């Protein structure tokens, strides 16, 4: 299994709760081959560090993504995740995982949203502790 | 003589030569042909690709296409919206890209304006959402004619293209013209909004806010080879049944008519004139790069406001060495206001429904013609990744949120009127290419009216209040002010004028500078109401064609 496939599976578990089907993996690879997620100017060290960290597992992906949303929104990690979400929502086999309601009615929605927001705030704080030093190290070592 | 695409020019100049095949051009052409005049149409005219699996619904496409990603996201994934996009909520479908493909020889430099042009067969309205709203007498105040004169042509165009709508509370802003068909079935969310409006109507109306059915150029019944809307949910991906009207459908019908010649693959650069008469059109044959000339008896420019203006500017520069400025460029400022219906949080949604706006807002203003127009689109088959990435959350939480609010989501596209001002204009920049030949570029500069920002904020506050009364919540910070140029309702650069002035046209859109030149697109509008203008472009084109001497 290549690094890219492992990455695709990890990110897919993070977004959709299951490994990516083979056809999604193939498309994810194709998009990378076409340079779709590459950014100009080239990815920074910090971008690469975030992706490397995110590959460690779904919790790591979430922590890195929460941080990236505020401090590296246009960066490599967010682009990879958005690409994968777009792939998942455009095939009948996977769309149900990312685009069908899971809560029961407005009350369930409000309760679960409150819980998720609470977790989100905690992760945002934790992300600061983890990634600000990484960012400093990357900056000291030059941006590229 | 009739001819299919790419035929040669007729041996003798036709009675009328038209540039363009968009909404304005085809209705001018149809009316001219109906009067017995012969018509030659020159056009770049990029054709639409054949529809894919025309009987499948949106959900079926995802299941049945061998490569649905290619269809929805494009062969190079160009329709994936990444962070840093301009805050749009819809990615553009890959197979609609041909509509916006440029042409060598048409260059624009813009300031404060993001211009779009189309060189497709059928023009920009191949991508439109069908909103068809007649202007009323207040909005026609600056035009040199009243509704009485335009009304019969709204009726005529409605008969030609099919428009659905209702005589409801919005009729106070939108005249109810003949041949309006009953509206389509509402999706669940839109039905809920309308039902709620019934209960809060008085409160909303007291605030000058009115709500009702939108008007759209879509068919309820089969006609003229087009099929009735079957609720396939593919509108954004272009309707495979031709239920949603586009000008290419009219062009298709004109191709079979005697007296009509269609010359596609021709990019018109300018016209040649002697004194105050246009003699010939100059164009480039795109397949060969050869420059050609065509004699004209009566010339009609309907290439869209920006390309039409460029042809006029180029002609004046090449013919007289004059570099003039066309002031008064207008466009509607649009703001996208996303909302969630509190009753539908966590609810499922039905993809097999009509996808574009089924409802609309009208906000009255103390100056009647400054009415604010809002189109309400509830979200059904749109892709969710652009929404998820715009939320200030990690993508998993945002996706969870998006899928659970999907059935509750909607967007109001709020449109403001615009006026002609000297600070917003088009002019020509002249340079040369490697071989020393002159090359011209259109320069567009747009300055919003000083009151625009305050007007916009006031309108948004009213829309938010109205949405709240309808049981909907607007997430803070998510309203997106679109850049000028994004509404693609360009107009005003060669306006109708009661006085005989240079660079204007008369009440019948005949040039005050050239006696055998007519302008038949938005360039001639002296004022731009908040309502989408294309229905009026078509009606006005039919009106002026009906006045041509036979
Ligand atoms: C996404 C989208 C949604 C929209 N929705 C709505 C809506 O709901 N309601 C509404 O009222 N309006 C809508 N509009 C606006 C509408 O599409 C335009 O107002 C309308 O298409 C303008 O028509 P036109 O004929 O004046 O010009 P165009 O549509 O620009 O047509 C120009 C034609 O001229 C040809 N041409 C241009 N230059 C040359 C040249 N130099 N030589 C030869 N041929 C040339 C082109 O090939 C084309 O055929 C929408 C637009 C977009 C992009
Ligand atoms: S729902 Fe849209 S795509 Fe489907 S038939 Fe109706 S207009 Fe066409």
List keywords for this structure.
heterodimer, A: 144 residues, mainly alpha, 7 helices, B: 550 residues, alpha/beta, FAD/NAD(P)-binding domain, seven-stranded antiparallel beta sheet, five-stranded parallel beta sheet, disordered N terminus, binds flavin-adenine dinucleotide, binds iron/sulfur cluster
CATH superfamily of the domain at 1-46 and 101-105 and 116-162 and 245-327 and 490-550 in chain B: FAD/NAD(P)-binding domain
Total individual domains of chain A: 1
Largest sheet data of chain B: 7 strands, antiparallel
How far apart, in Å, are the first and last alpha carbons of chain A?
28 Å
Hey, roughly how much beta strand do the residues of chain B contain? 15-25%
How much of the sequence of chain A is in beta strands? under 5%
Q: Helicity range of the residues of chain B? A: 10-25%
Structural category of chain B is alpha/beta
Estimated radius of gyration of chain B? 23 Å
Helix-residue proportion of chain A: over 70%
Stretches of chain A where pLDDT is under 50 for at least 5 consecutive residues are none
Tell me, rounded to a whole number, the average pLDDT of chain A.
92
Give start-end ranges of low-pLDDT stretches of chain B.
1-5
Describe the structure.
The complex is a heterodimer of chains A (144) and B (550). Chain A has 144 residues and is mostly helical. Chain A has one domain (3-140). Chain A has seven helices and no strands. In chain A, helix 4 crosses helix 7. Chain A is flat and about 50 Å long. Chain A starts with a helix and ends with a helix. The mean pLDDT of chain A is 92. Chain B has 550 residues and is α/β, with parallel strands linked by helices. Chain B has a domain at 1-46 and 101-105 and 116-162 and 245-327 and 490-550: 3-Layer(bba) Sandwich (FAD/NAD(P)-binding domain). Chain B has eleven helices and 23 strands. Chain B has helices at 23-34, 58-64, 68-73, 147-161, 188-206, 247-254, 305-320, 385-390, 395-405, 452-469, 534-545; strands at 16-19, 39-42, 108-111, 163-164, 180-181, 209-213, 260-263, 266-274, 277-285, 290-295, 299-301, 326-327, 334-341, 359-363, 372-378, 409-415, 418-419, 425-432, 438-445, 472-473, 480-481, 517-519, 527-528. In chain B, the strands form six sheets. In chain B, strands 6, 13, 14, 15, 16, 20 and 21 form a seven-stranded antiparallel sheet that branches. Chain B has a five-stranded parallel sheet with strand order 7-2-1-11-22, covered by helices on one side. In chain B, strand 9 and strand 10 (290-295) form a beta hairpin. In chain B, helix 1 (23-34) packs parallel to helix 11 (534-545) and helix 4 crosses helix 11 (534-545). Chain B is globular and about 70 Å long. The relative contact order of chain B is 0.19. The model of chain B is unreliable at 1-5 (pLDDT under 50). Chains A and B meet through helix 4, helix 5, helix 6 and helix 7 of A and helix 2, helix 3, helix 8 and helix 9 of B. The complex binds flavin-adenine dinucleotide and iron/sulfur cluster (SF4).
């Amino acid at each position: 299994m290549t690094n890219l496939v492992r990455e695709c599976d990890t990110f897919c578990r993070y977004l959709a709760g299951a490994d990516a089907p083979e056809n999604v993996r193939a498309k994810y690879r194709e998009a990378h081959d076409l340079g779709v997620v590459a950014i100009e100017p080239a990815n920074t060290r910090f971008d690469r560090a975030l992706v490397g960290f995110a590959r460690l597992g779904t919790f790591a992906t979430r922590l890195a993504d929460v941080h990236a949303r505020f401090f590296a929104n246009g960066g490599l990690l967010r682009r990879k995740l958005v690409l994968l979400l777009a792939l998942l929502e455009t095939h009948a086999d996977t769309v149900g995982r990312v685009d069908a309601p899971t809560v029961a009615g407005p009350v369930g929605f409000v309760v679960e949203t409150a819980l998720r927001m609470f977790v989100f705030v905690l992760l945002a704080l934790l992300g600061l502790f983890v990634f600000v030093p990484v960012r400093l190290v990357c900056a000291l070592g030059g941006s590229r | 003589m009739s001819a299919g695409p790419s035929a040669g020019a007729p041996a003798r100049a036709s009675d009328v030569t038209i540039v363009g095949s968009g909404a304005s051009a085809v209705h001018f052409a149809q009316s001219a042909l109906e009067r017995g005049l012969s018509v030659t149409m020159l056009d770049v005219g990029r054709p639409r690709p054949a529809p894919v699996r025309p009987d499948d619904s949106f959900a079926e496409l995802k299941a049945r296409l061998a490569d649905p990603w290619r269809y929805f996201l494009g062969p190079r994934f160009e329709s994936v919206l990444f962070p840093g996009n301009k805050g749009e909520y819809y990615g553009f479908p890959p197979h609609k890209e041909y509509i916006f493909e440029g042409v060598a020889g048409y260059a624009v430099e813009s300031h404060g304006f993001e211009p779009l042009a189309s060189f497709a067969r059928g023009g920009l309205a191949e991508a439109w959402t069908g909103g068809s709203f007649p202007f009323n007498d207040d909005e026609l105040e600056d035009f040199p004619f009243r509704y009485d004169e335009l009304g019969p042509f709204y009726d005529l165009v409605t008969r030609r293209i099919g428009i659905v709508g209702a005589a409801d509370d919005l009729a106070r802003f939108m005249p109810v013209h003949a041949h309006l068909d009953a509206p389509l079935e509402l999706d669940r969310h839109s039905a809920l909004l309308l039902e709620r409006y019934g209960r809060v109507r008085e409160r909303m109306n007291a605030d000058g806010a009115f709500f009702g059915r939108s008007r759209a150029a879509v068919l309820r019944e089969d006609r003229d080879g087009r099929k009735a809307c079957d609720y396939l949910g593919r509108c954004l991906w272009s309707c495979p049944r031709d239920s949603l009207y586009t000008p290419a459908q009219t062009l298709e019908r004109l191709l079979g008519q005697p007296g009509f010649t269609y010359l596609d693959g021709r990019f018109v650069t300018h016209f040649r004139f002697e004194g105050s008469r246009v003699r010939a059109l100059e164009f480039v044959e795109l397949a060969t790069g050869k420059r050609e000339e065509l004699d004209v008896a009566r010339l009609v420019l309907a290439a869209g406001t920006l390309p039409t203006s460029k042809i006029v500017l180029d002609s004046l520069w090449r013919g007289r060495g004059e570099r003039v400025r066309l002031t008064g460029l207008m466009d509607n400022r649009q703001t996208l206001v996303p909302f969630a219906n509190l009753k539908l949080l966590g609810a499922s949604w039905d993809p097999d429904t009509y996808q574009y706006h089924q409802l609309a807002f009208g906000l009255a203003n103390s100056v009647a013609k400054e009415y604010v127009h809002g189109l309400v689109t509830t979200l059904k088959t749109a892709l969710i990744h652009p929404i998820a990435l715009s939320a200030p959350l990690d993508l998993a939480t945002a996706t969870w949120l998006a899928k659970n609010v999907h059935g509750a989501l909607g967007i109001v596209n709020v449109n403001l009127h615009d006026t002609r001002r000297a600070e917003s204009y088009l002019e020509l920049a002249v340079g040369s290419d490697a071989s020393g030949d002159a090359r011209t570029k259109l320069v567009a500069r747009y300055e919003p009216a000083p009151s625009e920002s305050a007007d916009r904020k006031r309108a948004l506050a009213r829309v938010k209040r109205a949405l709240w009364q309808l049981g909907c919540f607007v997430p803070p910070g998510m309203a997106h002010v679109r850049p000028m140029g994004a509404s693609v309702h360009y107009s005003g650069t060669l306006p109708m004028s009661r006085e005989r002035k240079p660079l204007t046209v008369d009440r019948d859109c005949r040039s005050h500078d050239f006696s055998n030149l007519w302008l038949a697109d938005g360039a001639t509008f002296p004022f731009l109401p908040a309502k989408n203008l294309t229905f009026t472009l078509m009606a006005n084109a039919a009106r002026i064609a009906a006045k041509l001497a036979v």
